[in-house]
Fold this protein.
Amino acid sequence: MRPYSRGLAVASLLTVLATGCGRAGDTAGPVTSSATAPSATPSATPSATPSVTPSVTPSATPSAAPAPAEFAYQPLWPFTDTAGVRAWQDAYRTGGHQPWHLDAGMTALSFAGSYLGFTGIDRVVGTPTGSGNETWVAVGLALPDGRDSTAAVVHLARWGTGTDAPWEVAGTRDTTLTLDTPRYGSTATSPLTVGGLVSGVDESLRVRVVGPAGPVGETCCLPAGGERTRWSTTLRPAAAHGTLTVVVSTGGHVAERSSASP
């Protein structure tokens, strides 16, 4: 049996260490889960960039711009600091390097596939919402009957100044599967308690902690279900520095029988 995922939820930590202190942050942002969304199977070696290159043309005569301002949220993907943002802008202005950073949809898909490893999430679903320097992009995949299904709604914001300020993932918008512990933007310790709410039947939750260098902790498979029922588990992530992403996904009870099944 190949499980189908109802969705995934994301939160952000400043760091996970042997010891640490708390810091308040925003509420966990982005992910809309669908009760019929198929499971996106993580790849062991995800690619570093999206497979599709958007059609974006850099300025032929770039002008000097001030250094990017600090990001208003926790930076999850693809940049980790203002120096990286400025370096990309310089490379883009001189040679058109990685234009997908200017496409919110491609950045959201890169976050789900390249960073989190959910390679089955391969399309933008519907029209992004928001305006100005913030947007919410629904990403998902195709069901066996051909319909698109939403796996997550990714929150992105522009980082930097100028018309070529790139998009940065800030989190997800949660509905039927939420993650509220630890708090968004907090500093945590190991062992790490993770929890939230879930609505559904016969759910199976997988929780991972992902850092700039890759996964640092994982637990599976936590049974859950009900109507806005609280779930909780504990991980012991390896020591890491920088902004980390806590992601929970569920396989759900909807399944497809594969050729390998008895």
